[in-house]
């Protein structure tokens, strides 16, 4: 059964953060808060953990469109090809925030993503998610946890999330109530920005 760990967004407890980081390092799956909906993630360098997430989502790993949670823009060049000034300005204006930006991936992508031409980058405006990634030392892969309910697309109550997911994952973080609207997805890999999905983030950022 998963550990249920309470962490406060305003003042994350380092001991609890360390537990989560240790769980990720040892191949664990973690459900964590973001500035939009709760996400399911693992260490992007751990192929077995990635395969577990793909299995839960019912897709093949090589077909999965997971996004990467990063702490800030400083390590973008680890996974993304060089981007032009106007693209960087958009990122700087919008992040941290409720956006997923699709950018051209480079040759340093972990083996599971080697065939991908693009990568989705998220820098959420949430201290818990960003500090975990910072302490881990590399991004975590992220996918939203959807609800089967036709009316409620995303569960916002961490206790209900724990009830539903406790036997599928290793850690569920209670970071308070989540949002019920996913991130806005914008493709910046071409010559013009393309809005792929309108979500919580405003599209007036260009």
From TrEMBL:
InterPro entries: DHBP_synth_RibB-like_a/b_dom (IPR017945), Sua5-like_dom (IPR006070), SUA5_domain (IPR052532). Coiled coil: none annotated. It holds the Pfam family Sua5_yciO_yrdC. Transmembrane segments: none annotated. It comes from Capnocytophaga cynodegmi. One of its GO terms (molecular function) is double-stranded RNA binding. This is YrdC-like domain-containing protein. Residues 14-201 form the YrdC-like domain. SUPFAM superfamilies: YrdC/RibB (SSF55821).
